[in-house]
Amino acid sequence: MKKVYVIDACALIAFLADEEGAGIVESILKEAEKRKCKLFMNRINLLEVFYGVYREEGKEKAEEVLERILKLPIKIIKTIKSKVLKEAGRLKATYKISLADSIALAETLTKKALILTADHHEFDEIEEKERINFSWIR
After folding, report:
1. How far is CA 98 from the centre of its chain?
2. With a threshold of 0.85, does the pTM exceed it?
3. Domains within the chain, CATH numbers bracketed
4. pLDDT of residue 6
């Protein structure tokens, strides 16, 4: 059975900025390109990357980065299904996490996937208490 990943914004940013952990993300992207695994990202998490680049580097750079991301072998999830909505709501109500993070985690749970992330400060407590599988890039 192929591994299934949900990539969060911080992992994608690490790859794009060639930060620590970028090699791990690159390796998974190569596997997804060869169809040896599946890689998903919710559009809300894509928005996190876009607005972060927009705020730091402006509209033109944000547009370039978005175009680059859309060429990667990442399936962008464009809707929030009912299961994801309910699970994200539960996670958001239970833990002090952003709405986008709650959606990434809910996508991970509903897809029985691994979340590809570096967000220890957000997720360490959740990893201890929930049935979510984490794939840490650093």
Report:
1. 13
2. yes
3. 3-136 (3.40.50.1010)
4. 98
